[in-house]
Amino acid sequence: MSPVARLRSIIRNALEAKPLDTEHTQTNRWLVLVIACLAQFMVVVDSTVVNVALPSIQRGLGFSSGNLQWVVDAYTLMFGGFLLLGGRAADLLGRRRLFLTGVGLFAAASLLNGLALSPVMLTLGRGLQGLGGALLAPAALSIIMTTFQDSGERTRALGVSSAITAGGAAIGLLLGGVLTDLVSWRWIFFINLPVGVAAVLLGLRFVPESRADLGHRRFDLAGAATVTGGLLAVVFGIVKAQAWGWGSPRTLAVLGAGALLLALFLLTESRSTAPLVKLTIFRVRAIAVANTAMLLVASGMFGMFFFVSLYAQEILHYSPLTAGVAFLPLSVGIVIGAGLAQAMVGRLGIRNVSIIGLALATGGFALMTRVPVHGHYVSALLSAFMPMSVGLGLVFVPITLLATSGVSSDDAGLASGLFNSAQQVGGSLGLAVLSTLAIDHTTGLLRGSAVVAAATRAAATVSGYHVAFVAAVLMMGAAALLLGLLLRKHHVQPAVTNQPAFGAAA
User: Fold this and answer.
1) 3-state DSSP of 235-275
2) What pTM, to 2 d.p., does this model score?
3) Which of 128, 133, 223, 315 is deepest in the core (most CB within 10 A)?
4) pLDDT of residue 6
5) Contact 46/187 with Cβ under 8 angstroms?
């Protein structure tokens, strides 16, 4: 049977099936994967789809240059801040229930964003959108983890999910350019409505409900409040340090408050009978290292995508459509890398594949540190995109396996929430740090000049981008060192065999 005929058969059988309501109902696992990935794709795309549209959004709503990045940060901060609560809520209340709630909230917030009339309205809408993503993303990943019990099938399923995660970020750049140039920046949000409606309808009919058997339904609200407040304070302090100065009392006070809240979070979790995060999960070396590596990878990747988008439009003067098409090789390379990773993991091992991928991605990032003011697409961008994209595709599959395998089904939401938190918080923190470094460097070069020629300003801006790109290279290199130095064969074995190294009783 041809692939097309097989797909038609799956869809026909699925449409004739009865609705699924319990975790004991037999279902087509691969159809469940498609539905979960559909929602994941919508969420991941929105993490970067606004990047290409930022100049148009700034002109349309009157954002200041200093506040523009909050269009991105409001989304990723709310996403990252509430992911842990969303992951545990999925375990306790039901994974399908949280999945559908998150999709509905995400779609409604997208409509609000598309109708935004002011910077405040859009920023609040992006935060609400991030909250919806925080509910659905860990639920979708834990649905995949509990649906696929066989280690071989789970590897393939997580490989598809990983490709969606990495490729969706790059596709967001393409989609943002196409919609912004051909229609309006508002359509980068409106496009989520039909996707969200389809995911809800399909999820209601075909995704079975499942929940953890933990003996309680209590939520760690104190833990959620302290970790969310702490992360918000830290990132806000980093962003405002551009204007306040790193040594100013205000900067130090905000960063100190964030550190205090995060310390209170750890104290709360160590004493809670139903913690948001079981701190003992970090005793599993593979999980701890994989999440730390993902934090670093996401920091470099999302920051890189942000500045590459600005470079293409502000320096090379690409239109949004041209910029979006220019990023197409990124998406293709990531998909190719993710496909190769699934085959290479069995032959070379999870650790080796992740290190190879990080080496390639780091090399591509390093090429971006030499982009000129008067650059050409092939030499300035495409030459870096190819190793960068294939490397990222190779990285996401093994890191996802390391971070989400080896846990009992009762803790699938917890592992999913941790991994998604590392990705989203890393992206937000990375963007804040890289933006601060780039702006500080550019401002320093232009300081003391009463009148600045356009060419001089462009050169100073690109020099600031170079500093940001160097920081991204260091982040990627640090992730490679962590995986290479701290993981050995016995540490990654649970991810290979899918035997729990951490369970509900831990």
Assistant:
1) HHHHHHHHHHCCCCHHHHHHHHHHHHHHHHHHHHHHHCCCC
2) 0.76
3) 133
4) 42
5) no
